[in-house]
Amino acid sequence: MKMNFVGRHMKVFEVIKEMAEKKLSKFDKFFHDDAEMEVTFSMPKNAEKVEITIYTDGTTFRAEEISDTFANAIDRAIDSLERQIRKNKTRLHKKIREEGFIIAENDFPDIEEEDLTSNLRVKTFSFKPMSVEEAILQMELLGHAFYVFKDADSLETCVVYKRYAGGYGLIVPAEE
Fold first, then answer.
1. CATH placement of domain 129-171
2. What is the pLDDT along the chain (176 residues), one digit of tens a residue?
3. What secondary structure does DSSP assign to 46-112, as a single string?
4. Structure pTM?
5. What would the 3-class secondary structure string for 93-110 be?
6. What are phi and psi of 16, to 5 degrees?
7. Cα 56 to Cα 69: distance, rounded to the nearest angstrom
8. Of 56, 59, 159, 167, which shows the fewest CB atoms inside 10 Å?
């Protein structure tokens, strides 16, 4: 797996890179050699933050953790990524079983199946074209962390959201 280390507003020292490489090498058994991992280090407000993103075969796994040391943040991010990988693996194997293949239950003894739709709530509403500023205002008035709207200029469906670090984000569909 290709590992890429990035320091956001800081320099990533070799000691940190080596420690991260050693801890993250456990993911080599899960992915092909063409998988890419991006590890971003930053130091917001007297803490140490690690963001790990793994890109493989059209699937993205991501974890972000803040702790008192980079080692602790990496350990917590690794735990989070392992949970995500296990859940994804369970979904894939469940789908294969439903399509007619039989997999022995003892092949994956530590994986719990989870019904993600058991607590699903569906909402429908009409989109009114509006500006990004109006969408942020609506989101704030509703007290939500995100808001889906139709952009008045492009007529594309977009999402505004609150960022953890403060401020807002905008998700716009990509041209294909």
1. 3.30.505.50
2. 889 999 998 999 999 999 999 999 888 888 878 889 999 999 988 899 999 999 887 788 889 999 999 999 999 999 999 888 888 877 776 766 665 544 455 554 555 556 667 777 787 777 778 899 888 888 887 778 899 999 999 889 999 999 888 899 999 988 76
3. TSEEEEEEEEETTEEEEEEEEESSHHHHHHHHHHHHHHHHHHHHHHHHHHHHHTT----GGGSTTPP
4. 0.58
5. HHHHHHCCCCCCHHHCCC
6. -65, -40
7. 28
8. 167
The amino acid at residue 38 is E
> HSE on the CB side for 50, CA within 13 Å?
29
Report yes or no: 136 and 119 within 8 Å, Cβ to Cβ: no
CA distance 81 to 85: 6
Please give the structure tokens belonging to residue 44: 């917001």
| Two tokens, residue 74 | 């990496």
Only one residue has tokens 């008035």, namely 141
Q: What is the CATH number of domain 2-107?
A: 3.30.160.100
CB-CB contact of 6 with 12 (8 Å): yes
Strand order in the sheet with 48-56: 2-7, 36-42, 48-56, 59-67
